[in-house]
Amino acid sequence: MAKENPNWEGLLKWSLSHSDGTGSARNLSEEDRRWFMEAMQAQSVDVIRRMKEITHVMQTPEQVLESQGVTPQDIEDMLDELQEHVESIDNANDLHSIGGLVPLLGYLKNSHSIIRAKAAEVVCTIVQNNPKSQQLVMEANGLEPLLSNFTSDPDVTVRTKALGAISSLIRHNKPAIAAFRLANGYAALRDALSSESERFQRKALNMIHYLLQENHSDCGIVTELGFPRIMMHLASSEDAVVREAALQGLLELARYRSGKSDASPSEEDDKLKQILQERIKGISEMSAEDLVAAREERQLVDSLWSTCYNEPSSLRERGLLALPGEDAPPPDIASKHFEPPLRAWGANRNPDAKSSTKKEEKEEAPLLLGPGPSSGNAS
Q: Over the range 94-105, which residues count as b (16 or more CB within 10 Å of their CB) and which as e?
């Protein structure tokens, strides 16, 4: 290729000139098709080249980089760029092929906390919904430094990022879940719940919920480790997300206990009842706007009360479980025109719910080794 980088301005003009958004698609000439394919291929090759350059930097000893004036902030910016590239599953899997995965995992042991945290964030992106990279990270013994940072790093941000990476690594990954359990992971999660960081607490609670869903029998282990007491404390947290996650965990444990024939009353039952009564009182005093926002919490409190005490909570009596307009059925305008079987069929339909996600835009990171395109430009 004559140019080091693809001509994105020219590519945009070419695309606009071949479609006005209203007419039918044009047949491309062979020259146009070749030019377009070369531009796209140049972008792909250029991203891999940048990933190789970043890999070379990660392989360079820290002392050498410092002697050349490279700062921890420079490394963090470089890892931020790498994270953008590996958002593509193909690029994430290619990182191992070009030799970049092992030095990236090595950065989890870096002396600078911002680098340890950012490295864990990149690992999280690589393994998210990516079984191949999950396996590669496990084979490279990547779980060990993540666990070390999660359990004992002095920086809570590093601990939180490491937990996020572990959560993505073990998802739908039974070998990783088994390794996490063997490494006394539940005890580490219990310690995380005692942290003063609400963000750390939220991540730990979400991971506990996932693990208990995957292995319901682990509810017994969690109970023996004292999780119910900690979760009851967090159920009164000022953070709404922490409260909901703690209530969800308590509900999982209550359902497990209710299914056991040898379950006996304990001191914690009275404490839980008191906490639920306080939550019901707090919900009753909420404004209309806050009640709408607390919909999940209202449902969790009622479900937990019903599971533990075999009766509906007072939220139902007060009309606070389902507010006017929530889950209201559509007006029945067809009942007079259709036969009952057809109406029953229509009532039982479950239209697919569509959700939209919005990807946060990131500022372009300074490049450590010269200009390179962002993988987001490929589209």
A: bbbeeebbbbbb
Residue 339: pLDDT above 70?
no
Please state the rounded mean pLDDT for residues 316-322. Answer: 89
DSSP string, 306-332: HHHHSS--HHHHTT-SS-TTTTPPPP-
b/e burial code for range 262-294 (CB count within 10 A of at least 16 → b): eeeeeeeeeebeebbeebbeebeeeeeeebeeb
Burial of 170: CB neighbours in 10 Å, binned 0-12, 13-18, 19+: buried
Of the listed ranges 32-36, 95-99, 204-208, the least confidently predicted one is 32-36
pTM of the entire structure? 0.74
C-alpha distances out from residue 256 to 104, 204, 304, Å: 40, 20, 12
Residue type for position 138: M
Q: How far is CA 224 from the centre of its chain?
A: 28
Helix axes 143-152, 113-127, angle to 10 degrees: 130
Radius of gyration of the chain (CA): 27
Mean pLDDT across the stretch 133-155?
97
Angle at 69 between CA 67 and CA 72, to 5 degrees: 105
The residues, ordered by sequence, that sit 6+ positions from 155 with a Cβ below 8 Å of its Cβ are 113, 116, 117
Residues in the chain, overall count:
379
Contact 163, 200 (CB under 8 A): yes
Taking the C-alpha atoms of residue 222 and residue 200, their distance in angstroms, rounded to an integer, is 18
165 and 146 in contact (C-beta within 8 Å)? Answer: yes
Q: Are 232 and 250 in contact (CB under 8 A)?
A: yes
In order of 254, 269, 274, the CA distances from 263 in angstroms are 10, 12, 20
Place of tokens 């299914």: 259
